[in-house]
């Protein structure tokens, strides 16, 4: 009997795997969530919007764009919002790619990249990271062909942590043809303290083929509300806004995002606490003999290879994110939970 069949891509498309649940939120170091609860001012603003949930949200996201324009120093027509930066990425690739196009991206990097590429009908061209877990931008530039439509750059790289520097990106962009779209994914930009790290917004000037992705999920702690955005040339932002499903972002999410931008000083204190804890965790791991790449996000990466799944099981009840055959990513959480993880990691090494 015949029945409706999806596109053939679904015969090979892997499902996105969310971080492993834990018996309490505090023990969940597998999803790169912000460990702090919502700021009272943000929670109050979002809660107010609950009282009008019978109304459709503002499809134009006007309040969000006004606030982002003022905060980031960009024009409103350079912005396109969506359901997290990953939602914006899916929309962007669907709008700019079709069958026969290629998308170059680093690997290992964000797990959603190959899924988004395949769903857009394009062909992924993954390029291996360097030995220090950073982007090999020379190899990525070498991989660009006449079929290349988009190149993805993730800084800091998820799940390994290193950044792309300004000089590295400038040299790379000099080799990218003007008709190839370069996407800088900066989901963890607010955690970066590397003095030479690229800042995607600074790189936009004078370039018509470059966009930057940002999110409110990580530093701002709005992961559950799903809101992110793109900054880029007005012509590209306009296409993405057109391709985004109507009413994709709720007014609750928009209100929380705007309130977060207004509470940036309070959020900055939280960011500094997370960054300081990250440095302490990385220092402790290295002192215990672990090979930990430089990280400028809110996580650390342990390149455990074939031992990744066993190590993740060993860390219970702390939940960490294992990438089978590659490594384990551990989010920076509450100091007490980080200490439990470090104890488990030390016991693992002692037993080897």
UniProtKB/TrEMBL annotation:
Residue numbers of N6-(pyridoxal phosphate)lysine PTMs: 218
List this protein's GO terms for biological process: L-histidine biosynthetic process
- Molecular function via GO: aromatic-amino-acid transaminase activity; histidinol-phosphate transaminase activity; pyridoxal phosphate binding
Q: Which residues form the Aminotransferase class I/classII large domain?
A: 27-312
Q: Does the keyword Coiled coil apply?
A: yes
UniProt feature coiled coil, ranges:
257-284
Cofactor(s) this protein cannot do without: pyridoxal 5'-phosphate
Enzyme Commission no: 2.6.1.57
Q: Which UniProt keywords apply?
A: Aminotransferase, Coiled coil, Pyridoxal phosphate, Transferase
**Domain of life where this protein originates:** Bacteria
Give the catalytic activity.
an aromatic L-alpha-amino acid + 2-oxoglutarate = an aromatic oxo-acid + L-glutamate
The protein's enzyme class:
transferase
Question: What does the protein in this record do?
Answer: Aminotransferase that catalyzes the conversion of aromatic amino acids and 2-oxoglutarate into corresponding aromatic oxo acids and L-glutamate.
PANTHER family found in the cross-reference section: HISTIDINOL-PHOSPHATE AMINOTRANSFERASE, HISTIDINOL-PHOSPHATE AMINOTRANSFERASE 2
Q: Give the protein family.
A: Belongs to the class-II pyridoxal-phosphate-dependent aminotransferase family.
Name assigned to this protein: Aromatic amino acid aminotransferase
Organism annotation: Aeromicrobium phragmitis
> What lineage does the source organism belong to?
Bacteria, Bacillati, Actinomycetota, Actinomycetes, Propionibacteriales
């Amino acid at each position: 009997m015949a029945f409706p069949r999806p596109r053939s891509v679904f015969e090979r498309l892997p499902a996105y795997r969310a971080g492993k649940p834990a018996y309490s939120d505090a023990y969940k170091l597998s999803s790169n969530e912000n460990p702090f609860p919502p700021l009272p001012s943000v929670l109050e603003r979002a809660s107010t919007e609950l009282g009008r949930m019978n109304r459709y949200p503002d499809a134009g996201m006007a309040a969000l764009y006004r606030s982002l324009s003022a905060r980031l120093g960009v024009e409103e027509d350079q912005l396109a919002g969506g359901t997290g930066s990953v939602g914006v990425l899916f929309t962007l690739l669907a709008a700019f790619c079709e069958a026969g196009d290629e998308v170059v991206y680093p690997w290992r990097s964000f797990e959603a990249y190959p899924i988004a590429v395949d769903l857009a009908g394009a062909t992924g061209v993954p390029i291996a990271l360097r030995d220090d877990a950073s982007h090999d931008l020379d190899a990525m530039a070498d991989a660009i062909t006449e079929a290349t439509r988009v190149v993805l750059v993730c800084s800091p790289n998820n799940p390994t942590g290193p950044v792309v520097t300004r000089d590295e990106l400038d040299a790379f962009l000099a080799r990218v043809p003007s008709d190839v779209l370069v996407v800088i994914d900066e989901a963890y930009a607010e955690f970066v303290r590397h003095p030479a790290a690229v800042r995607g917004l600074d790189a936009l000037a004078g370039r018509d083929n470059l966009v930057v992705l940002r999110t409110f999920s990580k530093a701002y702690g709005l992961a559950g509300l799903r809101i992110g955005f793109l900054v880029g040339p007005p012509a590209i932002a306009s296409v993405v806004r057109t391709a985004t499903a109507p009413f994709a972002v709720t007014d609750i999410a928009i209100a929380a995002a705007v309130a977060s931008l207004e509470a940036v000083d309070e959020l900055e204190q939280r960011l500094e606490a997370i960054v300081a804890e990250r440095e302490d965790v990385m220092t402790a791991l290295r002192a215990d003999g672990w090979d930990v790449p430089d990280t400028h996000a809110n996580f650390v990466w342990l390149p455990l290879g074939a031992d990744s799944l066993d190590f993740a099981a060993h860390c219970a009840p702390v939940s960490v994110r294992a990438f089978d055959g590659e490594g384990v990513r551990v989010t920076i959480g509450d100091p007490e939970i980080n200490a439990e993880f470090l104890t488990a990691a030390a016991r693992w090494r002692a037993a080897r």
